């Protein structure tokens, strides 16, 4: 299975960090612990010193995703494990995730509906899980979970796609699934964060998650986006034509616009699909043993 590197993005988590590092270093002495201080203004670095972890420093707060990227670039393990440093993730669940890495390319900790931070976020995640499942043609159980284990090569292959925000798990999940890698889910129990409030905002970050789903979908499987939109435009043309024919006995310009839009969007999807396939073919011939 190889060496395991645990990557902890940290921003002002001095309340929960000592207990987390103590548990990780005592229960997993062979694991590499990489703490990425994402511009904290508390005692994060003083807390890390006694534990002998690998410390990566950001000069200012760059975002959770940026911290994860920095940690992955520094980590030397064959398996990367990402988890929150705010006390929500139980280090005991690490064994369940890592144990599956002999058979899967990525294992994700899946929270239950009641395990979400708020009921509103739980409902939002259900919607995103359903949309992501449609995009990936795979049952996505927890799209936004940051507690996951992933093979080094798989993570580094998709690293340039990661945004610098909290939505990196969304990108990683969809990119890995659409690239044909294997993914599994492990039930976990998420606890309440220790001190402070979550940095995720339902409206702002929810909109970002939606845009990322669309972006990754158009990057890996464009017709999954273009085809439904084309179909909707075509159906609108049919309904408009039927209405105007029954009421005025004529074919209107609006119906023509709907029909033409449907055809154009469909053709754009076909072209995008061909470009996507060319990118896959080029990657297959040049990737080799890069990682």
Classify the beta-strand content into a percent band.
5-15%
Fraction in helix: 40-55%
CATH class of the largest domain: Alpha Beta
What's the CATH topology name of the largest domain?
A: Spore Coat Polysaccharide Biosynthesis Protein SpsA, Chain A
Contiguous low-pLDDT stretches (5 residues minimum) are none
Ends apart, CA distance between termini: 16 Å
What gross morphology would you assign? elongated
Largest sheet: 7 strands, mixed
Transmembrane segments: 225-243, 255-272
Keywords: Membrane, Transferase, Transmembrane, Transmembrane helix
GO molecular function: transferase activity
Pfam family, one: Glycos_transf_2
Description:
This protein is an alpha/beta fold. It has helices spanning 17-27, 44-48, 64-74, 94-99, 119-136, 152-158, 168-178, 202-220, 223-248, 253-286; strands at 4-10, 32-38, 54-58, 79-82, 106-111, 148-151, 183-188. It is elongated and about 80 Å long. The two termini are 16 Å apart.
Structure summary:
The chain has 291 residues and is of the alpha/beta class. It has helices spanning 17-27, 44-48, 64-74, 94-99, 119-136, 152-158, 168-178, 202-220, 223-248, 253-286, and strands spanning 4-10, 32-38, 54-58, 79-82, 106-111, 148-151, 183-188.
Task: Summarize the helices and strands and which ones pair or pack.
Blueprint: E1 4-10, H1 17-27, E2 32-38, H2 44-48, E3 54-58, H3 64-74, E4 79-82, H4 94-99, E5 106-111, H5 119-136, E6 148-151, H6 152-158, H7 168-178, E7 183-188, H8 202-220, H9 223-248, H10 253-286
Parallel strand pairs: 1-2, 1-4, 2-3, 5-7
Antiparallel strand pairs: 4-6, 5-6
Helix pairs in contact: 5-8, 7-8, 9-10
InterPro entries: Glyco_trans_2-like (IPR001173), Glycosyltransferase_2 (IPR050256), Nucleotide-diphossugar_trans (IPR029044)
Pfam family, one: Glycos_transf_2
Organism: Desulfoluna butyratoxydans
